[in-house]
Amino acid sequence: MTDLIHDDSDALALFFDEMRTLPRIIPDRINADADNVEKGLAKLVLTVVELLRQLLERQAIKRLHRLDDEEIEQLGLAFMKLEQKMTQLVQVFGLTEEDLNIDLGPLGNLL
Predict the structure, then answer these.
(1) CA-to-CA distance for 69 and 17, rounded, in angstroms?
(2) Which end of the chain is least crowded, N or C, by CB within 10 Å?
(3) Residue 109: what are its φ and ψ, rounded to 5°?
């Protein structure tokens, strides 16, 4: 029983030692440029919107056989307008289409 307590105290002491080094590792202030924050947030939001757009488009293609010609035309126009708006927003924020394709490491690219 005393060995177990002794082991825990060593781990606790090591933990507190590590915690004392954090102030040297983490800066007191984060130097966040407003333009970079805005662009990063826009990249994240547009990536999610693009992912959803592509998923909706794939689902719509699978269900085309259930729609009449007018519904197919309306759906096609809606997707075209959404794609045009995405292209416009990507340009407004100074991004490229490749910027929206986030690398997920071992899983590959998102889009």
Answers:
(1) 70
(2) N
(3) -80, 150
pLDDT in tens, 22-43: 666 666 666 667 768 888 899 9
Q: Are 40 and 93 in contact (CB under 8 A)?
A: no
H-assigned helices in 63-105: 69-92
Instruction: Compute the distance between CA of residue 111 and CA of residue 92 in angstroms, rounded to an integer.
Output: 21
With a threshold of 0.70, does the pTM exceed it?
no
pLDDT of residue 1: 45
Give the pLDDT score at 37: 84
Region class of 26: left (phi > 0), else alpha (psi between -120 and 50), else beta? beta
Q: pLDDT at position 26, please?
A: 63
Residues 90-106: b if buried by 16+ CB within 10 A, e if exposed? beebebeeeebeeeeee
